[in-house]
Amino acid sequence: MHARAVAATTTALLGTAGLLIPTPQARAGEVGEPPGVIAHRGASAYAPENTLPAIDKAARLGFSWVENDVQRTKDGELVVIHDDSLRRTTNVEQVFPGRAPWKVKDFTAAEIARLDAGSWFGPTFAGTRVPTLKEYMRRVEHNHEKLLLEIKNPELYPGIERETLKLLSNEGWLDRPHLGRLIVQSFSADSLRIVHDLKPALTTGFLGTPSVVDLRRYARFTDLINPSYGSISATYVDTVHAFNGPHGRRLGVLTWTVNDAATAWTVARYGVDGVITNRPDVVWAALHGY
Ligand code: G3P
Ligand code: CA
After folding, report:
1. 1-12: average pLDDT
2. Domains of the chain
């Protein structure tokens, strides 16, 4: 029903000198324009988070923006997984019983490739793997999707910013058209500053709710402030919007993790530019009056 409509309105040509800056909302900031919708860890209410089936499901539902989490294995492979431990979302305890606490950074890519990352979610997903970032980017490309990539726990992985950008470059994701489909975000301001310094043209998002007095400083390296929905108000969103980011455009706001209609309406009234959700269909229907 809404597949093409959403796809057609999720990238905005913004910025000066033809600079392509993506936001999940076309014409961000126009009164009455509903926020964009981003599938959190893929359509993670319906398929195991951060897996290829989760982004396939988002695409089937008609959503082009997906979010993920990137970490690094013991032997330096970038993989897509949320927790710093493999325990919650794989069968690592059965396969490697003596390796507690099963940290991602303590396992090789070959070991992680043996794990089942789908059965915990449901039997129909048995055999699903933890994707490498390379595999994941190829599927995002295949699905014509757009990516909100989170560098997760960067303090555990020195150098992960440069490595992530290298992989993105190798996969063709740092050319001009792809930069319009890519945002890199992190809870770490230091990590985000590194990303911005390495690739100034890239759109970045800070995860958190900086105090108002700090916003001017954040606006030097981040295009978006991405706060938890419970931490914001209409006044806060307006205040963020009053600043211009490193590309000369007003700072945007993508809020998380909103999974019900009532909260979606609330944050839409606040004026956020995008809503990050495990249930993109539910949020989209709420925002568009279905
Ligand atoms: O994209 C926002 C959200 O992913 C941040 O929290 O813990 O789900 O990575 P978390
Ligand atoms: Ca995340």
Report:
1. 35
2. 2-84+131-289 (3.20.20.190)
